[in-house]
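<amino_acid_chain>
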Amino acid sequence: MSKNTEVFEHLVQTERQRGFSRDFLASWDQCEFWNTVEVGGLRQNPRTFVVEEEDVLAYNKALGESHPLFIDPEYARSHAPHGTIIVHPVFITTIAFWFAQPGDGGSWIRTPGARNPFQYIEIFDPIRVGDRLTQKQETSDRFWRRDKAYITTHSVLTDQNDRKKVEFWGTLILPPTADDVRPFATA
């Protein structure tokens, strides 16, 4: 574990969190780079993300949620509309990073030195505990603006019933080449 991840170690509560590499510097060279990423071609990610109560609970608590529908499973079982704790809408960012594994398409979102100027998230059906989510993703744009390299990803998440849950576009400003990323990754 590097100094970059140890400050967050107290937030790691679940098996999925323990199995997820939070040290983006360790695998930076396996990610796609702005100058080499292929634009277009919506493709199916081979993984499935199962929304577990413990992951949602850990996320909600880490955000500082205090309402019992978000942090008290027993209360939520008898008071929530679907009988489970509520999945915070921003939990989608956790899922996006989970799908973006080093060596896979879309892994550029893990690039050291990246900045997030904007994103657009459209929720069609709230994500719920127990959902089995799959992802289709494409790099939809790559462009220069104000002497900076921007890249946009477009993702669609569907559940076990092939129902569209979320569609989102995320844009990052990235160092354009592996040589430009290296100083951020090795500082």
Observations:
- The chain has one domain: 3-185.
